[in-house]
Amino acid sequence: MTFLSMVLSYSMRVSLSVGIVAMTDTKGSDPDIMVLDWDFAQKGIILSSFYWGYMVTQIPAGHLSRKFGPKYLLLSAMLVCSATTLLSPSIAVNCHWVIFCLSRVIQGLSQGFFFPSVNTHIAKWAPPGEKTRIFSFVFGGTQFGTVLILPIAGYLAASPWGWPSIFYCTGLCGVLWSVVWLFVGADSPDSHPSINDREREYINSSLVETSSESNTMPTPWRQILTSGPMWALLIASLCHEWGYSMLLIEVPSYLSHVFGFDIKQNGLISSLPYIMKFLLMIVFSWIADYVIKRRLLSLSVSRKMWSVIGDWGEAAALWGLACVSTNVLAAVILITITGALNAGVYPGFFANSLDLAPNFAGLLMGIVNGLSTLSPILAPIVTGYIVTDETDREQWIIVFHISAALFFTGSLIFVVFGSTDTQPWNNPTTDVVEIKNLSITDTNVKDAKVNVIRS
Predict the structure, then answer these.
(1) What is the CA angle 153-163-141, rounded to 5?
(2) Is 44 helix (H, G, I), strand (E, B) or coil?
(3) Could you give the CA distance from residue 124 to residue 210 in angstroms, rounded to a whole number?
């Protein structure tokens, strides 16, 4: 269900990237479907407006999901987002484009609860030996949702129902998910109505760094905000999100205006990077868990290796676009490689919040993902100022080079300064006192080093 929540959240988020091409296409196939007169700068603002709201609720969502549990927060967020999506066609046709921006802000506000709530959920459900696989599978729903909606949105936009059907289909699916989640969702194994005792005990006994009392712990704000590994994770995420959001938001326009794909081809070709990324996420996460379980690599080396594969591989592919900017086949191949290698960041730095502080996993995800939203807000706007002529390949190449440089820099910082050690502030109610060379004559234990845990 959490995997499907990611599928639907990205379906509702990304559908506009393809939909906006049809919404503003004066050469649309159906004259009965209204065409909107938004210019390129307005479209850039509209595409980024989602992230204005998305950034605001991330940190509060992480805090609230720890205090009250993720189930009902996720339910409420999905219902609000779905209702706004269903109303989007009416708002776009009957209201000013600024009002449509506001509706996207509301969608962003609701979706800001998704990542922190789901990360809190995973921290309560994922045993360490399966953590990377579960994390990658659940958040792989973001890629599956993208893969699913890009071609479907293209076909729906070219169908007799036109572009409004994109919003109606995704919004309705979100409502249906909410109904099912109400009955089958659970905050933790202890609150699940039908889990068997053996599975509950297996999960609970394996989560040694996750406390069942995490909802009552004081939040160590100062320690979090002054943590070096936390800043390394945040910078890596900021740099990565710039490049990724540029690909996600702008590639449909790039393919449409530079290479002349029609709306059906646009959706299909745009989905190729995400098809490959989803498949590689599953493969990479299984390899990562296997390597860690067999102790072939430490967790730290594994996280950093996958981050380098993801970000530096993307950087190399984007730089390669400058050399093949007139070759349509080569451009599609390089864009596909760029998106596919992005899978490395999931077993890489993206899962790092679960390593640093499982008890505050949702809050850390909220901080990192919330502040990283600055990148998707700025990337389309900056792209709009650089790309003044949407058919000019040279202007697009500048955008690709900026993204490649940020991919490389962010991953380098994580490699140098990142950490996978559970931080001391994961359990702020515990003092650790080390007593060296303690002689206990009654039990004949001498020169012992004892860790006394005092709550």
Answers:
(1) 30
(2) helix
(3) 7
- 3-class SS of residue 280: helix
pTM here is: 0.74
| Interatomic CA distance for residues 270 and 49, integer angstroms | 22
Sort 213 into a burial class: Cβ within 10 Å, 0-12 / 13-18 / 19+. Answer: exposed
For the chain, what percent of residues have pLDDT higher than 90?
27
Written as one letter, the residue type at 95 is: C
> 451 pairs with which residues across the strands?
434
Conformational region of residue 217, where left means phi above 0, alpha means psi within -120 to 50, and beta covers everything else: beta
For 250, how many CA atoms within 13 A lie in the half-sphere containing its CB? 32
What SS3 state is found at 388? Answer: coil
**pLDDT > 80? residue 402:** yes
Partnered with residue 453 across adjacent β-strands are 432
Residue 102, CA distances (Å) to 9, 53, 61, 125, 439 in order: 18, 9, 20, 36, 69
Give dist(CA 57, CA 81) in Å, integer: 13
Burial 383-416 (b: 16+ CB within 10 A, else e): bbeebeebeebeebbebbebbbbbbbbbbbbbbe
Measured distance CA(19)–CA(149) in Å, rounded:
10
